[in-house]
Amino acid sequence: MKKTFSYVSGGDFSAMTFSERYSPQDFYEEMIKNNVTETVINDENYIEMEIVEYETSDESMNFVRGTFLDYDNLKGKDLFEVKGIS
After folding, report:
1. Which of the 8 DSSP states describes residue 8?
2. pLDDT per residue over 33-86, tens digit each?
3. Rounded to whole angstroms, how far apart are CA atoms 73 and 70?
4. What's the DSSP call for residue 11?
5. How is residue 83 annotated by DSSP?
6. How high is the pLDDT of residue 69?
7. Is the CB of residue 56 less than 8 Å from the CB of residue 81?
8. Which residue in 3, 27, 19 sits closest to 83, CA to CA?
């Protein structure tokens, strides 16, 4: 199944800051509306955001998150699943 994600990276706390300030779904929809697939937020925190799509399942995503990622990693980089717009 194809899933759509907002991939957030940048600095040490970019993903955590992004999730505190923005709704990943709303941010994604605004990017799509503006025909943008990558953007940078460069205020007091540097945040890169890119829309990505992958063929994956919930089971495989949960495995990757549970096995290869830890809380400290997810502060800087994370995938936020969003509902794709057709």
Report:
1. E
2. 999 999 999 988 899 999 999 998 889 888 888 887 888 888 999 889 999 886
3. 5
4. S
5. -
6. 81
7. no
8. 3
Task: In whole angstroms, give the CA distance from residue 22 to residue 37.
Answer: 17
What's the one-letter identity of residue 70?
D
- Distance CA(55)–CA(53), nearest Å, equals 7
How many domains does the chain fold into? 1
Q: Residue 34's beta-bridge partner residues? A: none
SS3 sequence of 35-74: CCCEEEEECCCEEEEEEEEEECCHHHHHHHHHHHCCHHHH
Closest among 61, 43, 52 to 8, alpha carbons compared: 52
> Global pTM?
0.83
Please give the residue range of the domain that contains residue 72: 2-82
Distance CA(76)–CA(42), nearest Å, equals 15
